[in-house]
Specification:
Elements: H1 2-19, H2 49-59, H3 70-88, H4 100-109, H5 114-127, H6 145-159, E1 177-181, E2 187-194, H7 201-209, H8 215-221, E3 237-240
Antiparallel strand pairs: 1-2, 2-3
Helix pairs in contact: 2-4, 2-6, 4-5, 7-8
């Protein structure tokens, strides 16, 4: 009987101690603990034509190497890390991501012809493996690889000190270019160009201005019909601003 009484007293003391504890934060009815969800990463912008050109020429030893980006650092250290992992018996690191620069550089080092480089580049772009400058997307949705290769030759020649008298060859059929007449009947230095199959905005800029980087000027003059530099379509009539 005494044991039962002591047990009851102990139980009462325990209940009393619980009742005197400070109240904790009240949970809302139906509330559930949720983990913070990180915001999705913004997609990387398409590379610039000059950025791609300089990276390829630097990799081929024809231009002073620019400051390496994260992809370049990963590519440089991949072989060393792979060798160390293999020696330790651990899993091999994944291959560094393929870029337009690395793809073209490797193809040129292997001595592949232009047609094969064009096939490799367009196949990789179709799979979504590489990002391509918007100025190199043609009206057919392909990559204007011949324009990129011509730009490489042109810049490498200028780096070597030679001066070219004509802009590099480009793709495209060379569509119809007409003069936009002024109000008094006199021609103004502004032309209309009809987009042809195989044309890219970069190719049009090279053909009419001798500079691939002028594609932004053509794009700005045609924003009413172009949502992006890579959205040109066959048959569109583009305004070509005065040089």
């Amino acid at each position: 009987m005494l044991r039962i009484g002591l047990a009851v007293l102990a139980l009462v003391a325990a209940v009393a101690s619980l009742l005197t504890l400070p109240p904790g934060p009240a949970a809302r009815p139906g509330a559930m603990a949720t983990a913070a969800v990180p915001a999705p990463a913004s997609p990387k912008p398409a590379p610039d034509v000059d950025e791609v050109t300089d990276a390829i020429l630097a990799a081929l030893g024809l231009l002073q190497a620019p400051a390496p980006d994260q992809t370049g650092l990963q590519a440089m250290t991949h072989s060393a890390v792979q060798a160390l992992a293999g020696a330790a018996g651990g899993p091999l690191p994944p291959d560094p991501p393929v870029t337009l620069q690395s793809l073209v550089t490797g193809a040129l080092r292997d001595g592949k012809p232009d047609a094969e480089i064009d096939r490799l580049v367009n196949a990789a772009a179709a799979r979504g493996d590489i990002r391509v400058p918007l100025a190199l997307i043609t009206a057919d949705g392909r990559v204007d690889t011949p324009l990129l290769l011509a730009n490489l030759v042109d810049k490498a020649t200028r780096e070597a000190g030679a001066r070219r008298s004509a802009p590099p060859a480009t793709t495209g059929a060379g569509g119809n270019t007409g003069i936009l007449p002024g109000g008094d009947g006199a021609p103004e230095p502004q032309r209309i160009y009809t987009v042809q199959p195989g044309d890219s905005l970069g190719g049009i800029a090279v053909r009419h201005y001798g500079d691939i980087n002028r594609f932004l000027r053509v794009y700005d003059a045609n924003r009413t019909i172009l949502s992006s530099p890579d959205r040109i379509r066959v048959g569109q009539r583009l305004v070509l601003p005065a040089p």
